[in-house]
Amino acid sequence: MWKTDWPKEAVSSETIVVLRRILRDWCDERGHLADSREGSRTAKLLVSWCEFGVTNEDELARLIREDILVPDA
Description:
Structural class: mainly alpha
Largest sheet: none
Radius of gyration: 13 Å
Distance between the termini: 17 Å
Number of strands: 0
Mean pLDDT: 87
Strand content: under 5%
Helix content: 55-70%
Shape: globular
Number of helices: 3
Order of helices and strands: HHH
């Protein structure tokens, strides 16, 4: 069985601003630095959710606050 992986779209600068804001707020709430182990994990999770198709800022913030893992795509 063949599997085709399509290239991912580039993340826009506007999206990066949103992701940084969500990560900063998350880190402030929990007392972590963005470059800490927890911050890095959360940043990766945010990008994964974005790649999965979640783009709404409030929804992304809720997903990481509730520590919901990205489903297998």
